[in-house]
Amino acid sequence: ILSEVHLQPVMKLLFKKLKRAQILITNVFACLSKHNNKENFKANKKCEISIPRFAQASGGWSPLDSNEQQWLQVDLGDRLEIVAVATQGRYGSSDWVTSYTLMFSDTGRNWKQYRQDDTIWVFTGNNNADSVVHHKLLHSTKARFLRFIPLKWNAGGRIGLRVEVFGCSYKSDIADFDGRSSLLYRFNQKLMSTFKDVVSLKFKSMQGDGVLFHAEGQRGDYITLELQKGKLSLHINLGDSNLHFSNSHTSVTLSSLLDDQHWHSVLIERFNKQVNFTVDKHTQHFRTKGDSDHLDIDYELSFGGIPVPGKPGTFQRKNFHGCIENLYYNGVNIIDLAKRRKPQIYTVGNVTFSCSEPQIVPITFLSTSQSYLLLPGTPQIDGLSVSFQFRTWNKDGLFLYTELSENSGPLLVYLHGGRLTLLIQKETENPVEITEGTNLHDGLWHSVNINARRHRITLTLDNNAATASHATTASRIYSGNSYYFGGCPDNFTNSQCLNPITAFQGCMRLIFIDNQPKDLILVQQGSLGNFSDLHIDLCGIKDRCLPNYCEHGGKCSQSWTTFYCDCNDTGYMGATCHNSIYEQSCEAYRHQGKTSGFFYIDSDGSGPLGPLRVFCNITEDKIWTAVQHNNTGLTRVQRADMEKPYTMFFNYNSSVEQLEAMINSAEYCEQEAAYHCKKSRLLNTPNGIPFAWWVGRANEKHLYWGGSLPGIQQCACGLEESCLDMRYFCNCDADREEWTNDTGLLAFKDHLPVTQIVITDTNRSNSEAAWKIGPLRCYGDSEWLFHFWNAASFNTEASYLHFPTFHAEVSADISFFFKTTATSGVFLENLGIKDFIRVEIRSPKEITFSIDVGNGPREATVQSPTPLNDNQWHYVRAERNLKQTSLQVDSLPKKVLEAPAEGHFRLQLNSQLFVGGTASRKKGFLGCIRSLHLNGQKLELEEKAKMTPGVKPGCPGHCSSYGNLCHNGGKCVEKYNGYSCDCTNSAYEGPFCKDEVSALFEAGTSVTYIFQEPYPVTKNASTSSSAIYVDAVISKEYITFSFLTAHTPSLLLYINTYFHEYLAVILSKNGSLQVRYKLSKDGLLIFTINSGNFANRELHHVKINREGRELTVQVDQVLKLKHNFSEIDFKAIKSLTLGKVTDSLPLDPEVSKANAYGFTGCLSSVQYNHIAPLKAALRHPSIAPVTVKGSLTESSCASIMEADVNTATTIYSSSDPFGKADEREPLTNAVRSDSAVIGGVIAVVIFIIFCIIAIMSRFLYQHKQAHRSSQAKEKEYPENLESSFKADIDLQNTVSECKREYFI
């Protein structure tokens, strides 16, 4: 099969530090693939190659058939350290290999693929027959056997290869443990106490459990390293004499799949309580629990097991079965001492000093559709016996299919939902089904045994006969002729193999049929059975959850080809839990139009910090962010002194890093600090040792109080020189017998939040104190706001900004806004040697995200139905992780590309990051980019733009994209960084003109707007340009308002003109709504909306719109009326009145009836064209042409409707969710029960006396006194009108003055 093979040295010594292996190649095996079909098989020959002087060598290896099923095996004669390889093509030919992989083995069995960066590494080969391509291995490998596996070769030739391997001799000390043996290392003294330990070793095993080493002491100290289900666990306990009742036990588990019969390295380094635990490439750093720093152990350590179980603290564990190499404990070579029979070493059982290698051949099923293994059986035997071992990550897959003889039917063994199922199907009988086990897709080796005799069949899992399952069949069971493992052939058309489930993906070994082992090497050579899409002589299982690439605490699970992340309860989403589901600040929620409430904020977006629950106060101009802690109430303190201080720790339900991020990004932060005292000193000023202090974020003690400055031992009154006693700098330091307080704000950001308060002066006679630390409050997320609008304008295609290299090896997210009129251009680009990442607009309707991590370019493209170069802001988010590459543009469907299961996955970039331009030959970007974020980090575009030609900082035109966020007639105002909403001509207010402006009206309340000058009055406006002339005709009325009442009839709104025309909106006696026009030509027109009683204590929204002759009326967003006037000449508006009309005007009888009562209730957000009369009366009463008569109290109609109208309750503003107690009496909370009883008695007495006087007064002076009482009420109790109204609206009829006084 093979052509003449001549191997020559392809390089003399390219790596000076590397010594060529003394025996470079002794035997070369050229074999057909690890996967092949029997019909294509050609017999293999063992080639004994005599290697002449390398300088004279020529030729090379070229197999007869050039396909992906060939490999070249090299035997180095002994186990060596391989550090480099080199290749050439076949001499004087067109035959060379362009790419290949490597495999290694100690025995020529159970091969291991060479991996780099946790992936099967593909080496670049040759591009001609003569040049030398060499590769230094990133990780040297110790092995005797080496395989070169060609993947691709010259298309114009065949596979051709000359190889050379570079390495060093490798010496090691090995001990073989049989599962019952161990080595004991005994100290010179009975007790060994160490504060530093270093243990290093290598091991290989086929068993998933076993103790590698153990040491313990009489006082409870121990250290144990053991295999548990293929993972390595380190247990350690320092200085604990009561093992069972202590939490000082520390356990750490690393790695997995360590029972693969390959070498694994272990390093344990302990210094006091700090431990570094390394298994292969994975390291975990941790600190031991408990207080001790020393490990105290008794006279010996055991390696390979625990020979004397039952000692205090020992674990009932299996001994280790396998080989250990180069075992060192604190610099002592344990195996070398054992080999030399030194007295420090005591051997238990049979320990040998060479590694026995079990000749077990595993196989890997690669495909869920094409993989199968066909093995022959002995047909028509009375009974059946099949056994095998498997390991997999897949929940489903076919293990075995065979057609039983004598029409016994097919027998199937498969995995379904992680459970093992055996099924025998026969047309004339009921199927026989046996189910065993759960969660068998855990990656561990499991054994399956199937035995049948006559009518009885037994299924045994993991050799546990006690739990074996049995079943009986009606007919006898006879063995089959062919056994299909893993799946069925694709081209099978007859019934000899039918797979009702997916094919098996995983590993198998130790296959027995009819109690005879099957030699899978014969299968590989084509002498036995048949197969497809297998790896023979290796198990290719990989733990895709190690390391865990699920971010932010996501839980990893896996199948054979990929991993999955469960992001529930993490606050993140996406394939790898990378993207936060929350905004970065309250400013961001405000920008979305959210109102005040509790939110989660994630300060660093996709960064490592988790989300933080805060209260966002969005009702004020400044957006406040508040974080509550565990004790914001007023707390009483007694009996505390220096020896027994009172201490309170504050818990904010967050980490210090989360709070620091929030504080650092804010413009201003504060916490209220209040100390109420009675003969209790605070800071002991002017020169004493403080009796109270607080601790801040850096665990630093602070000796200043609220309202003062850092470093100054004073309170607010000391700084303002307003203390009760000027000799002291705090009111409480005067040490008075009566209650006083020191209250102020702590506002130095670097010291916040308050984490602890200590009080020590309340243990003297009559000494008492009460303290309060308020929630942490911050406003002005200047960082988010700045970066949200942080923009740069690119004016030429050659202009760009450059930043440091974007480091995002396994996870990258890029987001930004852009607007442009250009047809194409690169937004950003970063290059590596081969890798790159790029985002660009390729055409007016196409955005593309391109990336190459070494497997070839991949592109995610989003097509837009409309052009994106419309000079409007558009949002782009590109993301790449180990599972997928995705691109989102605005709200268009996301484009997602799944990542390949194997191949390179680390994105390695080394050039600068170009923004707005490119280092390649592509076209740069023309337009604006803003709010650019990379992996949650903000890029400073404006500062870079200031110093870069062709790029300008900032970008105008925000209102073109965001003007629709200004509601209810609000006007978008362009700003350099962003926009704002001007609510001047809107009946609403707030950042987006969405907050209602409403007020409570009493009977007799009147708000009249005079149309002499339109509001707002501007100082520079001329009368001629702004006055409404008497002969002007109003072409339209646009009226909106909301109301809530329980009273009828009522006059809601009245508009009159200079020509004695009017428009009135009233509630009739029956609760219907009427719109009444009095026109000079048409007379009185009445439009009644009789769809229910609108005086029902619910909030109703009215919209009246007249455009020319067409009138429409909507109530509660439903069109109720539509009318066309024959002619309309509603002219010269004089005034608009809300509530009672107090002027002498000619009113029709129905309006007069309604006007007699005016309006009692709540009016909200009243708009007439561009005028907001109610808002003008409440916000600008001194400058607006508005007159208010009677009582007008600002309130919230929505809050009143939600409140219980039958109970007078206190309603706190949404701006203060935690409430504010009256602090004039500092111990309100502490003595609440006593004060409540006393207050209740006093209130009842006053109430009874007050009602008696009121009834008598009304009886004697009914009319006169009622009038005076009304005036007195308006003067003395304006602040109580809201609660009075809430009581009033519960009644259907007008209440008497006495009843109103009752609710006051």
Automatic annotation (TrEMBL):
This is Contactin associated protein family member 5. Disulfide bonds join C928-C955. PANTHER family: CONTACTIN-ASSOCIATED PROTEIN-LIKE 5, PIKACHURIN-LIKE PROTEIN. Residues 541-578, 956-994 form the EGF-like domain. Its main location: membrane. SUPFAM superfamilies: Concanavalin A-like lectins/glucanases (SSF49899), Fibrinogen C-terminal domain-like (SSF56496), Galactose-binding domain-like (SSF49785). Gene3D superfamilies: 2.60.120.1000, 2.60.120.200, Galactose-binding domain-like, Laminin. It is a single-pass type I membrane protein. Residues 174-355, 362-539, 790-955, 1017-1197 form the Laminin G domain. Residues 577-629 form the Fibrinogen C-terminal domain. The chain crosses the membrane at residues 1236-1261. It comes from the Eukaryota. Keywords: Disulfide bond, EGF-like domain, Membrane, Repeat, Signal, Transmembrane, Transmembrane helix. It is found in: Membrane. One of its GO terms (cellular component) is membrane.
